[in-house]
Amino acid sequence: MRKIGRYIVRGRLGRGGMSTVFKAAMPVTGKIVALKLLDPLEPLPALVGVGELRRLFIAEAVTLAGLHHPNIADVWDVDEQAGRPFFVMEYFCATLASLIGEQQVVEEPTRMLDSDKVLHYGQQVLAGLVCLHQAGIIHRDIKPANIFITDQDTVKIADFGMAKLAGEPFPEVANLAIGSPYYAAPEQEAAPGQVDGRADLYSAGVMLYRLLTGRLPMGSRVSPGDYQPLAGDLWDGFLQRALAVAPGQRFADAGAMLRALLELQRQWESRKEQACRLGPEVEVAAARAVGEKRALRCEAVKVDARQARALFGVNPLWRPLYPHVSDFHVDDEVTVVDRATALIWQRRGSEFPLTWEQAHAYVEWLNRERLSGRTGWRLPTVDEFLSLLEPVNELGDYCQPTPFDPSKRWLWSIDRRSFVAAWYVNMDTGFVGWQDFSCFYYVRAVCSLA
User: Fold this and answer.
1) How much is the average pLDDT of 360-386?
2) Is the pLDDT of residue 282 over 70?
3) DSSP assignment of 126-145, as one string?
4) What is the spatial distance between Cα 220 and Cα 327, in angstroms, rounded to a whole number?
5) Is residue 232 helix, strand or coil?
6) pLDDT number for residue 291
7) Are 147 and 121 in contact (CB under 8 A)?
8) What is the pLDDT of residues 211-245, one digit of tens each?
């Protein structure tokens, strides 16, 4: 059993130019944390110097530990192992990258988020940047993979390995890239040591564009309205300014960009209200006419990622190939019946997120308590969860309230990926994913009518 300091290593989460991030467990409690260890790749030690890398690493930890903001990841501990420093941060299972399905080949299309979600996440990222910039910190690597999502759907900025810290000179090495391709501002690629907060605003603009369109702003750009007709040209002016090549043509600072986003939200709410007042019946009826019914599997399986797509019937973005047509009937405050599948579902689900093992215990408790007078409650299969996902329509879910608790977004299935990981379904974005048993997701139990 490998240990770093007093922490038990449970696996590797990622590798960067200066460090490796591990999933680790705290002693005694076993609470899962993210542990970042100074572990520079060649030729960094030769180019920068081991002492300088150590100084930068510790400066990052100390700076982060001194910040207190709901949209910035917290540092809990700083120590060293065999002369190599490390620091410990709170751990989250989800990032914006995992939410949209951004992979190592970043040019590949990703899942799109609706304007509500992009506004929700964008405002939080910009609020975090306001705090960082006021503290004299330029992140220089804002991208979906560095934005974590909490159980409460709050986002937190993390990974400050590329950050420019106030009063801390960052070594400028020829041909050493600072930031990530496509997300880094043009001036950052040319002179990374000279950038100001507007470089982060450009990166945030690229990220928002990707969330809205599923694409990177390469070549001729598309309008988010091409994919979300209700949004129309709402985002165009905002994104044009955020993605301006010249820093002077962007928003002056993160506060100004945040205020513009809040105004954009006001306009978006007005559009939604008007559209719903006109009535969505035609659009929704047309959307529900699409889809192919499939027999729903109710037995649990263990399937790895190579075979899972075919078994679940999902596309390369892990969304359903053949949306089901549901026929919901609200039974009571506790349950809802889908007449199309003869399944009874919990409406609210678990009150708080649970590990996969805890999810099984919760279902056993439901059966002991005879929820709605029944004892056949179980964790759903992925197939059963996918039957709840409606075909996408222009008005989204804005005018059609869901019979389920919308705050329970990440839901455990009974299907396993391995002996330490299980499959889940994200109901907001409508996709299938997998995570370790130790992650905290909600439960929405199901029961067969028969």
Assistant:
1) 97
2) no
3) HHHHHHHHHTT-B-S--SGG
4) 42
5) coil
6) 42
7) yes
8) 999 999 988 889 999 988 889 999 999 999 999 99
Which one, of 387, 403, 374, lies nearest residue 340 by Cα?
387
Which residues, listed in sequence order, are joined to residue 81 by a DSSP beta bridge?
Answer: 84
Q: How far apart are CA 18 and CA 227, in angstroms?
A: 38
Examine the residue annotation and report whether 116 is marked as an active-site residue of this protein.
Answer: no
Q: Decide if pLDDT at 281 tops 60.
A: no
DSSP codes of every residue in 283-334: HHHHHHT-----PPP-S--B--HHHHHHHHTB-TTS-BSS-----EEE-SSS
Cross-strand pairs, 338: 328, 343
CA 361 to chain centre: 27
DSSP 3-state assignment of 438?
Answer: coil
Q: Which of 150, 25, 135, 2 is nearest to 81 (CA)?
A: 2
- Assigned token pair, 233: 């040209």
Separation of alpha carbons 96 and 388, rounded Å: 23
Gap between the Cα atoms of 221 and 240, Å rounded: 10
Sign for the pseudo-dihedral over CA of 119, 122, 126, 132:
positive
Distance CA 411, CA 446 (A): 12
Torsion of the alpha carbons at 288, 294, 297 and 303, rounded to the nearest 10: -100
Active site residue: 114, 141, 159, 338, which one? Answer: 141
The rounded distance, in Å, linking the Cα atoms of 103 and 61 is 27
Other CB atoms within 10 A of residue 303 CB: 18
How far apart, in whole angstroms, are the C-alpha atoms of residue 308 and residue 421?
13
Cβ neighbours of residue 98 closer than 8 Å, sequence gap 6 or more: 433
User: Which residues have a Cβ under 8 Å from the Cβ of 398 and sit 6 or more positions away?
Assistant: 116, 230, 272, 275, 276, 280
Q: Is the pTM of this model over 0.85?
A: yes
**Quick one: pLDDT at residue 395?**
47
Tell me which residue of 405, 390, 125 sits closest to 283, measured CA to CA.
390
Cα(187)–Cα(123) distance, integer angstroms? 24
Instruction: Please name each of the domains of the chain with its CATH number.
Output: 3-90 (3.30.200.20), 94-273 (1.10.510.10), 292-448 (no CATH)
Sheet holding 19-25, edge to edge: 3-4, 7-15, 19-25, 32-38, 84-90, 75-81
Distance of alpha carbon 69 from alpha carbon 79, whole angstroms: 23
Give me the pLDDT at residue 392, please.
Answer: 57
The distance from CA 330 to its chain's CA centroid, rounded to whole angstroms, is 31
Closest to 113 measured CA to CA, from 235, 12, 209: 209
